[in-house]
Input
Amino acid sequence: MKRLIVLSLLWLLITNACAVDAKEEKEMFFDSMAEQWEGTSCSKEELGKIEKIVPLFGLQEGEVVLDAGCGTGRIIPFLLKAVGDRGHVYCLDFSQKMLEIARQKEYSGNVSFAKSDITQMPLPSESLDRIICFCTFPHINNKMDALKEFFRVLRPGGVLIICNLLGSEELNAMHEKIGGAVAGDISPGAEEMEWLFLESNFTPVELLDSRDLYIMKAKKRP
Ligand SMILES: C[S@@+](CC[C@H](N)C(=O)[O-])C[C@H]1O[C@@H](n2cnc3c(N)ncnc32)[C@H](O)[C@@H]1O
Output
């Protein structure tokens, strides 16, 4: 019995240490990518694409919104414009370097930043109308923990939107090609995403996985 307890404790220690290593490796990867990301992902063409996609999020004036994994902040101006002066955009990311670039930009509207892991956010429960997880969900190591945390901070009836600029097959192939810290970063297909939503108490409302656009929307059950 004693041996079993010792073995279980050892197993817990080892798996926790691996999870911490994987998280740190990913933070370091995104820190090292921050300047390059700002250069390539904020081109006129990319921003033009984003401008056309943001209206699909259904943002309303006055809403309190989270940009989960905000990176260097490329979608913040579009979110601020949509929620207007009475709204607020909270921006979180665990990469210090990504946040530094995002914070340096000038915004018009109510915006706040915090360095945080998405799976443990410094936000009160039921405080948000909408969460936008843009080009970030595939990179989250523990997707179920993230969904539970999204559920906690959304108000009842609040909406979670997961959006990528490539379909799941295309994005997964791209991450595999890049290799390193993102080699195994998977964008779940529509069927798996529907299952993840249901398991975390969300009601799926839209599951679109086309070649060049991925939008998964779900509502927090009241
Ligand atoms: C591909 S970038 C996208 C950034 C931004 N949403 C955009 O579209 O420009 C992914 C971002 O997610 C962040 N990220 C990944 N996993 C995270 C986690 N568990 N907690 C917080 N941020 C995370 C990374 O640091 C990175 O800035």
Notes: The chain is about 45% helix and 25% strand. The first helix runs from residue 2 to 41. The chain has one domain: 34-220. The longest strand covers residues 154-164.
